[in-house]
Design brief:
24% strand, alpha/beta, six-stranded mixed sheet, 254 residues, Purple Acid Phosphatase, chain A, domain 2, 12 strands
Amino acid sequence: MSFLYLILVPITLVLLTYMFLEGRMNRLIPLELKISGLPDPFDGKTIFFISDIHRRLISEQWLDSFEQKADYIVIGGDLTERGVSFSRVRENVKRLTERGPVFFVWGNHDWDAGPDQVARILEEFQVTILNNSTHVLEENNSFLNLSGVNDSTRHYDDLAKTLASRRLFAPTILLSHNPDIQKKLNRSMDIDYVISGHTHSGQINVFGYTLKEKAGVKRHGFGTLIISSGYGTTKLPLRLGAKPDALMLRLTKK
């Protein structure tokens, strides 16, 4: 028993240390979004997508290391969670808004943390909240729909309302914290891409197995779904086989 103890304790400590360090990684995943009919002024524009920040403080050194500055920034939900100081939330929002115009969609943990205070911080820094609504981006009299649904985990999403305010004949990028919104989508909705987070790619995967949908690019009948692994962690500050990430999405003509 003592021999087994001497073996298991250091192995466990090494594993926990690795899981903690994996959860603190800063990774930026570049992806190209090929869009049919993308107006010329949007060709080459970039969207920095970061979700599931939770308890982390976003690294300024990491943000400053990006080779290309983002034209637009999206917080894809779970900016915070219950128990996180609002001073930290405020600092994270400040760091992002210093680097470009910011858009936000609600995640399930944002509602737990105190939505009124979260909204006040976002409004202080002039963040555009996409609450079952569409913001029409305009560049040189050309347009792109940036649509955002409220959290589908709590059934606060209203897809019909979200899409009703789109500009006709302009491409659409749909933002949804929870990728389960895919169950309500079809090709007739004319959505070019859906960008989500929420799952943390499982956060802790045992031998690669997880009950949550893994991060990545998924092709579906309605179009393409992209799921980010997220930047932070929830419950435990640990990850295994699910490295954190944020996305740099580059728009290109198809």
